[in-house]
Specification:
The chain is built from 14 helices and no strands. The protein has one domain. It is mainly alpha-helical. α5 packs across α8.
Length: about 290
């Protein structure tokens, strides 16, 4: 796969992931977070296991371990996201979580023991101020500071997932990694849901329709094919494309879910999107791994 094709794949992946916020938000009205995650990722694993059975059967040790690591990390990220999403609008959640675009180069600088570039730090400050305005908007609308905090934790975890995805995808089968990752997420979520004694399945046709969108579009494609694209694109470059995720979630939240737009929220939107776009115009980015 060429790097151009890999970039186009990643853009498509992040658009698909952006739609998940609205579907998850709607399902949270009738299902518990861990039940949604359990059903979503277990079904996604089963679908991919059937389609790519040969790859799963011949899965290498490196691919298996990489999938387990990513599955554990993404489970933590999704738990933060789902519990935060119960208290915060979809557009706000996606914008905050996709601050990962700024956090990835900061993490990379820490790992390589170098100072982050000045533009990265400026973007981080702008994004944090934007989060502050979004927090004010949520509070004035009866939102929760806890919800904002959980989404921030999701963003921090997501940035780590992007970096680790680049590392484990090298020298391994990305499709196999994606399948093991989804299987791990489904198993961990199911165990947690059973332990909490709140496991349930979708009950209506519309609930199953939203769940199938989460399974097929957001998970089978959105999660499983990110390692494929990142095998050919460095983590910091991949993080840049996450900007399409909040655009997708915000547009769907406003046009479909009817989420309100206040002055504070609009300022927060503009600041965070400006930070993401400013970072996207960076002339050169250092690779995490040479």
């Amino acid at each position: 796969m060429s790097r151009t094709h890999a970039k186009l794949l990643l853009i498509s992946v992040f658009i698909a992931r952006g739609t998940s916020f609205l579907f998850s938000k709607n399902l949270l009205q009738s299902m518990q977070p861990m039940s949604i995650l359990a059903v979503r990722f277990t079904l996604a694993f089963l679908v991919l296991a059937i389609v790519f059975f040969k790859k799963l059967r011949s899965c290498s040790r490196e691919s298996f371990i990489g999938g387990l690591i990513l599955g554990l990390m993404y489970t933590v990220c999704m738990v933060f996201e789902m519990y935060g999403l119960r208290m915060v609008d979809t557009g706000v959640s996606s914008l905050i979580e996709n601050m990962a675009i700024v956090l990835v180069p900061i993490y990379a600088a820490i790992l390589t023991k170098t100072m982050p570039q000045r533009k990265t730090m400026v973007c981080a400050v702008i994004a944090v101020i934007g989060v502050g305005f979004l927090s004010l908007a949520q509070n004035s609308a009866g939102g929760s500071k806890l919800g904002i905090g959980l989404i921030i934790l999701a963003a921090m975890t997501y940035a780590g997932c992007i970096i680790v995805t680049e590392k484990v995808s090298r020298g391994a089968d990305p499709i196999a990694i994606g399948m093991i990752q989804l299987g791990t997420m489904g198993a961990l979520s199911l165990l947690a849901s059973l332990a909490l004694k709140n496991f349930s399945l979708p009950q209506t046709g519309s609930q199953w329709a939203m769940m199938l969108m989460l399974v097929l579009v957001c998970s089978c494609f959105g999660f499983a094919f990110q390692p494929v694209g990142q095998k050919y694109v460095p983590a910091e470059s991949a993080a840049v494309f996450t900007v399409v995720n909040p655009f997708t979630a915000s547009i769907m939240g406003i046009t479909i879910a009817g989420e309100s737009i206040s002055t504070e929220k609009m300022i927060g939107y503009v600041l965070i999107l400006s930070a993401l776009i400013l970072y996207n115009t960076h002339p050169k980015q250092k690779k995490l791994c040479q």
